[in-house]
Give the backbone structure.
Amino acid sequence: MNISEKSKGIIDSCRFCWMCRHICPIGNATGLERNTARARALGASLVVRGATKLKEISDNIYECTLCGACTNNCMTGWDPKVFIQELKTEIVLNGVAPDYIMGLIEKYQTTGNVYGVLACACLNDLVNNDSDVLFFAGQDAILKTPESVKNSIALLNKAGVKVSFGLDQDSSAAWWFLTGKTAETLSVATKTAEKLNQFKTVVVYDPVDYKLFLHEYKEWGIDITAKVIGFNEYLLSLIENGSLKVKNNGKAYSLQDNYAYARELDDTQTGRKLISKVGVVKDMLLIGKEANLAGQLIMAEYMPNVMTEVALNRWQNAINMDCKTIVTENPAEYLALKATTPDGYQVLSVEEMILENI
Amino acid sequence: MNDFLFTQILTELEDAVGRENCSVKEIDKVTHSVDYFWLSRMWADRGRRMPEADFVVSPKDATETSKVLKIANYYKIPVTTWGGGGGTQGGAIPLCGGILLDTKRMNKIYEVNTESMYIECGAGAIYKHVEWAANEKGYATMHYPSSLTCSTVGGFLAHRGIGVVSTKYGKIDDMVLQMEVVLPNGDIINTSSAPKHAAGPDLNQIFIGSEGTLGIITKAQIRIYVQPEVRRFRGFLFKDMHSAFVASREILQKFKPSVMRLYNEAETASLIKKIVGVEKPGAFMNIAYEGVKEIVDVEEKILLETFAKYGAEDLGSEYGEKWWKEKITFFYPGHMMDLPQMFGTMDTIAPYDKIEKIYYAMKEAIETNFPQAKFIAHFSHWYEWGSMIYDRFIIDEKDVPKDPVEAMRLHNAIWNLGVRTAIANGGVVNDHHGVGMKLGRLMKEQYGPAMQVFEGIKKSLDPNGIMNPFKLGL
Ligand SMILES: Cc1cc2nc3c(=O)[nH]c(=O)nc-3n(C[C@H](O)[C@H](O)[C@H](O)COP(=O)(O)OP(=O)(O)OC[C@H]3O[C@@H](n4cnc5c(N)ncnc54)[C@H](O)[C@@H]3O)c2cc1C
Ligand code: SF4
Ligand code: SF4
């Protein structure tokens, strides 16, 4: 198996360590022993030692959301995501990917996205190239939550910001998730960087895309010269500089920290500051870097029941602390929580929360 | 087993727990074949496959568990229960194949009862999740083992586990009210509704520590406590182990600290130096005391006066706080012993009049007979009448046989000697990690004719011997 020494080191550390199992949203949803960083590492270590085959562990490699809760919780600094992503590349290149993953890859190759859907015609009117500020909604929002795209652009317009927007906004997140660092991933990323670089500022809606631009693109040597800023930060700056007028209605909102903001980009505060502008923060027990993931759209394609369970677990956290309104920061978590909202509870995206207080 | 019968049994198990909760996939078998037992890890490290189950099932509750056990009893297939697999004694390894029953789907928090101060939960709940449920309501479980995040309620009960604040709040066997248990024949029973009574022997205590050999715990009511108003720490350095023992025994006649950890000179100079930063020679002791502030103030005064009498150097609160913060860091890869080293924790327990003798006897036995082994120890759980030794042997890579069979031979020889020395001097086979397959052979040496009580219970509850064979010496 062709994996880096770094990955081998992580595998050999994690393979007999159980310390992060409690925090894994998938393991917590399935109760399966294999849904732990240690089980993945143990399986991989046996492949490295010739005691099992790569094919035998391939399903399990795709049962990780890459949410980084394990990495964050770990005292050692080991990052299981590193070997998981390298293994995906090996799995795909060796032709032992599970059928459902091959199905998604084929769908992407024929339709341009893993969901096999077209962007909503309702977004066509928003397409323009007139501003030097690009609103990068990302594939998930464009294909799955077009209302969020409309609302977000409307909000920016209200603050006097005109934005450019296009329907083909692929950060390469899907390729990266499915195949790791392959030629296809890099090719999509390179083309996207070229597009971003035509603008002065890029406001990135989905934190998962945002962290890809800031972290992985850098690692892959793909330059982004445009100023890239997260949607939350941008909104907050518009409120703080008075461009966007909001009122505070005192309502309690609970932030569903997205892992990319909280754990990868070290930002647990911007979302909360936004809430404080329009209401009060009411936190669940597990927040910030410790927050449980609530949804992941690609995995919902091939393990929908588990992903429903993941969302329900997060709702349980909210119910236990009497958090009635959850505010999400990305489309995947918005949709997952929306589809499972218990009676008497509510889920809002960040822009919906702001819009209800204008 | 022929594949026709195998498939028949598979379909019956799928019928019992649902197809998606019954697996014969290699990944599920492999991940349930290696637990925290050094031998299983070594075997896998050398590229060998451990004994694996034929079927891996995850029932959601007692009813599904009961169905599985009925099937197993009918076909006379072994059933090994697996909680978190964090056990150190090989207890959860399916040595004879058959059915591996993973409890982690039984993880529901049914009730947080703040009137009677317990949480009712499925036995497959990871203890940290129970702690979170308590914290959400402003309470705490006060069961803080280093494996809080990896092991389950049922696993701790089955191995009689213990956490760091045990001296004040007790062991897991003190922390449970009622339990639901599925007997080997599939009957579902409940123990008495209160843990203290005179209605015969204590059913709880028959199943606590039984390591899946007498039945499967499916639900438990776990005690919760009010969060302490204050928790204070104090580090001390004793010049020798003896004065630390006498001082500690005296303190326990006066009040109960929550944490009491005494490290021998070797462990002070290694782990404590590395993680907590104590540089001086001697035996480091960390004490925590907690509760209502006024009471804690008095306890602090008593502690300082008593320990000063025995020449303990007061190191202030800083090391103790650091220790508390880092208490689980010790257990992460790279922070403690790990393969390719060989190591083992031979925890034993005894009354004060024997504990020191046992410690020195074990130390001498190991160091003399196995000069390649380092012997380090701490004493972490204390009672008014005695204390436990958490003693470890460590052998560096160069002295560990490359051949896994020889490695197993050396490993077992050290264990035999260490535990036999403990027993000969009045100690018990184990304090809180349980017996499993690791120490099963020594149970008869410990109990002699008393072993027939366990054997009698086993025979009557599990006449087909399907429950976790070759564990606990049964
Ligand atoms: C890093 C680390 C640190 C540790 N620190 C501590 C510590 O501080 N204190 C401590 O006490 N232990 C400690 N341990 C050991 C371990 O956590 C305990 O032995 C724990 O009790 C094992 O629980 P588990 O759920 O992992 O059980 P497993 O390993 O899965 O099983 C252990 C035994 O219990 C049986 N069993 C499991 N669930 C049930 C059930 N529901 N009904 C009947 N039988 C069952 C199994 O068959 C097996 O025999 C540590 C382990 C690790 C990995
Ligand atoms: S990430 Fe850290 S805590 Fe998790 S298995 Fe690896 S070493 Fe253990
Ligand atoms: S990255 Fe997230 S989903 Fe993957 S193993 Fe770690 S905690 Fe689980």
Remarks:
- The radius of gyration of chain B is 22 Å.
